[in-house]
Amino acid sequence: MDRSQLGFDQNFSGAADDFPSLLRRKGLLGPTAIGPMPQNATQQQTWQPTEATTILAFKFSGGVLVAGDRRATAGNTVVYDRADKVLEIDRQSIMAIAGVPATAWEMARVLEHSLQYFRRTQLQEMSVDGKVRALSKLLRDNFGFVMQGVGVVVPIFATYDGNSKPEARLYFYDAMGAQFEAADYAATGSGSPAVRGILYYENTWGAKPLHKLSEQEAVSLALRALDTAAESDTATAGVDRSGKIYPVIKIVSREGITTLPESKIAAVFKEMVA
Amino acid sequence: MIEEPYRWVEAIANRREYIEGQLAPGSPIAALGYREGILFVTLGQTRQKLFEIYDRIAMGAIGHPGDIERLRMAAIELASTEGFTRSAADVSLRRLAHYSLSPVMKSAFEQIYGPPYLARMLFAEVGARPEDDLFLRVEYDGEIASNGATYARARQDFAVLSGTRQSVELMEAFLKSEHKPDASFETAVNSALDAWSVGHMLLQASEAKELPARDAIAQHRQEQLTIAAIEAAVLERDSSRPIRYRSLADKELRSIITR
User: Fold this and answer.
1) CA–CA distance from B95 to each of A108, B15, B48, B78, B160 (Å)?
2) Does B42 have pLDDT greater than 80?
3) Which residues of B touch A113 (CB under 8 A)?
4) Residue A53 annotated in active site
């Protein structure tokens, strides 16, 4: 019996082992791709992965608002109308997802555990740049699947940087893992062209720029934007008026994450949108 | 020569004596279950002795920093991979200590050509009610002491760790008479500091068999508080957040210290 039973490496590697590589070493996380790309194109079209669509985020006077509709689809089929695409990663970070939920939720779970693992082992919080990079690395590891036509995920990451210069920060990614810091707003998913149009218009010619909006104004803008996206995109639910299903809206601020209660969203919807 | 049983027993005894000597000056740690959670308290100037292991598990340790570090990393790795593959609710301190840490520490201790772990650890896991709190003290030889009831002793809502056996025994005797599981946070902080002082006084006067007088404890505590910093952490019972561990700053506690 030797100490390797405790399951940790005795060699000094210099840098701390990150959580995904620890999981891979223990065989608890899947490979980065499943083999060569299928040659037969007709075979590729027989199976449609479940996808989730339209998330948006923008900076307003109280921090960053992140919103997502609730629909998950597979091809033309609505799979689920109560999906939660706006996920809390730690006390001040949110990852919102568009794409394949199976991959995205797993990615969010790995990211959440990675940040905790870092804090516990290294006895300090990971920096904002470190967190942004950790998500980028997960996307890159997933790119093999994206090339095979399954598992594409395009997330938004919103966090509050309490260290260098206290402010809310907002990032969006492409499927390969490139990160882009957004100055004012970001939207991804199939309904995002409409949402980007609205946010650009509001920010440039609206009554006031996005960063000056109050919480109430920000929530109503998010609801209107998702409802507009749903108007032309079947994969986006917007607001389900008959079923009373509202988008998930969370706010990242200096105080951490606030999840808006459904009653509050419903009240804003009734007054400003419906 | 080492194949002879007598030599092996002798070697183990020497090793035990050596390790006990190395651990003897370690600053005591007191962990108290109170109404809103579990409080860890120690005093020191330099090295961090209290650590977060997982959502509901914390650790305090004395010993060689290198050995503490390896055991700490192992505990975090085991808890994190379990919490990731199953769920946070499946991470159990009892399993972590009994099935993973203890066997490895025992075999390291008994393989007399290899180095043992020079460390003594105190783990706590916060439960939904004070009755569900679990405290485990894991020794360098893999021995585990828990706060559960035995034939000789009722269940304890606290646990302590110190350099010597006498110090541990008197800290426990002190807390048995002073500490109640429904104590408030303020009361728990003050009891923990008193218990630490009892343990610390015993490290300096190892011959003592009785609890020091109350004013002697207060005076010792006062002297130590002026030269050393308080290191403290809590595991909160409130289940609204998954992560219960929170370290407390020295100045957060100075204001609620009485006497």
Assistant:
1) 27, 27, 25, 10, 21
2) yes
3) 80, 83-84
4) yes
